[in-house]
Amino acid sequence: MSLEEQTAVQVLSTINTAAGANDHMFEKGTGKVSYYRRHREARQAYQRQYNQIHRVGRRKCGKAARKAAQDARRKEKTRKIQYVEDGIAVKSTAEDPEITSEMEAAERLVYRDYLYKITNLEEQYKDEWLERYMDYLDECLFRRLEQAKAELPTADPGTIHGHRRIIATYHQEIFLRGQGFDAYAQACHDRKLITDGRAVNKREFKRIYGF
Question: What's the pTM value of the predicted model, to 2 decimals?
Answer without folding.
Answer: 0.63
